[in-house]
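Technical annex B. To support the medicinal chemistry partners, we prepared a structural model of the target in complex with G3I, based solely on the information shown next.
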Amino acid sequence: MRRPSALGALLAGLLGATLVAGPLTAPATAAPRVPDPTTSTLRQLAAHTGMRVGTAVDTSALANDATYRAAVGAEFDTVTPENVMKWEVVEPEQGRFDFTQADTLVAFARAHKQKVRGHTLVWHSQLPAWLTSRSWTAAELRPVLREHILTEVGHFRGRIWAWDVVNEAFNEDGSLRDTIWLQVLGPSYIADAFRWAHQADPKAILFYNDFNIEGVNPKSDAVFALLTQLRRQGVPVQAVGAQGHLDTQFPIPTGIVQNLRRFADAGMDSAITEADVRSVLPVDATESAAQSAGYSAMLQGCLLVRRCLSFTVWGFTDKYQWVPSVFAGEGSAALWDENFQPKPAYDQVRIDLALAPSGRPRA
Ligand code: G3I
C-alpha cells in the first residue's frame, strides 16, 4: 500500500478512517476503508458510498482516442451514450434500426463492469427527418412511437440499468413543452412511453429526465406533480433525472437536497444525469472556484439523498465537450481540460466522494 499523501492524511484524520490506494475491499476493521483521494479514481472513491459515478460517452472518441478510452474505463462505473441511442441514430429510416454504435458502448461497459444509462427514447430533438418532415395523425404516430420504444428497449433488454424514457417534456414555467409528441398525441404520450418501456424491459429503472429541475422551482414542481400523479395511476415511472447543466454566470440552484428528497419521500429514485458547469471563456480563478462549487453542490445533493443512485457528468474532458458548439464564447465545462489535465473541480469531486458517509445501499 502506498503511504497516504498529506491530503490523504488530513482526510484520514477527518474521517477516522484508513485510506487505501486502489479499489475498496471489504472492511477489515470497524473504521471505514476509504481510498486515498489523491491517488484513486472516481469510481474507486465512489464505491464506499453506494452511489455510482458516470460519464456521457462520445463513441467516436471512445473508438479513436486511447487516452479517452482508458479514462472512461478507469474513472467511471456507469456510462451514458451521449448521442448513439437517440432516435436519429437508432432509427434513421422508419422501421430500419441500427444499434451498431450503441452495441459497441454496451460491450465496452460490460468489459469494464459498468452499468449503462440508456438515453433517450422520447425527445423533441435529434429526431430523424422522416419523422419531422411530414404531418401525422395520432392514429399514425402512436404506433410509430410504440414500435420505436419496444424495439430499442427490447434490443437492450437486461443490459440497460436505467432508461431516460422521456426527456425535456416541460417548459420553465411548468407547462408541457410544445413538441411533435404533445401536438399530435396529447399529454398521454408520456404515460404510454413509460408503459411501453416497462413492457419491453421490466427490470430497467425508468427515468423522467430534464434540465433546470435540480432545485425547487416551478419546473421541478410540475415534474414532481406529474410523476406522483402517474405513479398513483399505476404508470411505471420510477425515477427522476436532474440533468445539472450549470453556468458560473448564474447562481447554483437552491433546494437541491429538498427537491431530491421529495421525490424519495414519494417513493422515487433520482440521479444527477448530465452534470457540467460552463463559464464564459477565458476562465479566471474565481470562475474555476465557482465551477468546483457547482459540481460539489450537485454531488453533495445526490450523496445526501439515499435514493439518488448516480452522479453522471456530461463529458469529462473539454476535448469533446458539447458546450462550445451551443453556447458561443462559453466552455471549460468539464472536470478535465482538453489535455486531460484535471481541474480543481476534479479534486473537489474526489474530496467530496472520500468524505461522504460509507454504506448507502448500492443500487
Ligand atoms: O453525427 C453527426 C455527424 O454525422 C454530422 O456530420 C455532424 C454535422 O453537424 O453532426 C453530427 O451530429 C451531431 C451530434 O451531436 C453528434 O456529434 C449533431 O449535429 C449535434 O447537434 C449533436 O449535439 C448533441 C446535442 O445533445 C443535440 O441536441 C450533443 O453532442 C449532446 O451532448 C447533447 O446532449 C444533450 C442531451 O442529450 C440532453 N440534455 C441536454 C444535452 C446537451 O445539449
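Notes passed to the chemistry partners:
The first strand starts at residue 18 and ends at 20.
The domain at 33-355 is CATH 3.20.20.80 (TIM Barrel).
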